[in-house]
Design a protein that fits this description.
The protein has 310 residues and is mainly β. The protein has two domains: 109 residues, Immunoglobulin-like, CATH 2.60.40; 187 residues, Glucose Permease (Domain IIA) (Distorted Sandwich). It is built from four helices and 25 strands. Strands 12, 15, 16, 17, 18, 19, 20, 21, 22, 23, 24 and 25 form a twelve-stranded antiparallel sheet that branches. The longest helix has 18 residues. The protein starts with a helix and ends with a strand.
């Protein structure tokens, strides 16, 4: 991926900011994705947006420093350089309308049009029934685990590790793609919010970018689990780990071995489930890379590159 820092420097602010049109709106063209429309009271140069304006994508909004943002129940603030992130869910409707309040209390709306995705529907039969319908004791623990994960996802750390170019966290064969929906023993389940990469038990798992470890746990569904927060609400989730080599609160560097691949929790074989989220929204890890096409089952991750089967 061309990271936000280098990507923005290469394109420049002028390329991301439109000009006034007759309707009183300002339009800007994102680097990849669809049109961004900005309703602003005075100066169209106050706003720029870069990133992936697509379901499952995430982007950076550039505003005057310390501007306040509001979208639904979510409230957050731009930093001292006017930077704020936003992420888009699997089924996010378009446009996304964000209310911006400047430090001088002037307010305007940012309306972001998103590109839609199609998703794979995957059937898995023959699973033990406990993997499909957990017993009451397992269900109790699942709810406790969900509360721990939710608390970790509510953190908004003042880190900018997301500005770097991400690397793949492991090597292996892609066995599951983000956004797909699994039908387990004939019962539709929640969408799959990660990329599954299968290899041998013990395969190293690397931090795809630097960050702070905000969760280490052994969970009912995800087994050995680690969250690494890359800052401004963006984090990586690593599931089904065999051995965890970091502790809660550790600061890790990009490429650091943080765990090994396993088949813990609800897993049919050794693999890494790599998920990402922005605040409470699950985003697609694939979107941090500039790939010629979306990943498919059977593709391979080798030497920090995606190798496609076609």
């Amino acid at each position: 991926m061309t990271g936000f820092k280098s990507r923005f420097a290469a394109v420049g602010m002028a390329a991301l900011i439109g000009s006034f049109v007759g309707s009183g709106l300002t339009s800007a063209s994102p680097l990849q994705g669809s049109q961004v429309v900005v309703s602003t009271p005075d100066d169209p140069s106050q706003v720029a947006i870069e990133g992936r304006m697509i379901q499952g994508g995430w982007a950076m909004i550039h505003l005057p420093p310390y501007s306040q943002l509001e979208w639904g129940q979510r409230q957050w603030q731009a930093d001292s350089q006017g930077r704020a992130l936003i992420g888009f869910s699997r089924d996010q409707a378009s446009p996304v309308k964000v209310r911006v309040t400047l430090p001088n209390q002037a307010s305007f709306d940012v309306a972001i049009d998103l590109t839609a995705k199609d998703y794979l529907i995957q059937r898995i039969d023959g699973l033990p029934q406990r993997f499909v319908t957990p017993d009451p004791e397992a269900l109790k623990r699942i709810r406790q685990d969900a509360a721990l994960a939710r608390a970790a996802r509510e953190k908004m750390l003042d880190r900018t590790d997301f500005l770097t170019d991400f690397i793949w966290p492991t090597e292996g064969i892609v066995t599951g793609v983000w956004g797909s929906q699994r039908i387990l023993n004939g019962e539709p389940r929640r969408p799959h919010f990660g990329i599954d990469i299968a290899n041998e038990t013990g395969t190293p798992i690397l931090a795809p970018a630097a960050g702070k470890v905000t969760l280490v746990a052994n969970m009912e569904l995800s087994g050995g689990t680690v969250f690494v927060d890359h800052g401004y609400g963006l984090r990586s989730d690593f599931l089904h780990l065999e051995e965890i080599l970091v502790e809660l609160g550790d600061v890790v560097e990009q490429g650091q071995v943080i765990a090994t691949m396993g088949a813990t929790g609800r897993a049919t074989g050794p693999h890494l489930h790599w998920g990402m989220s922005w605040m409470d929204i699950r985003v697609d890890p694939e979107e941090v890379f500039e790939l010629p096409r979306r990943l498919q089952r059977g593709d391979q991750i080798i030497g920090n590159k995606a190798k496609f089967i076609d």
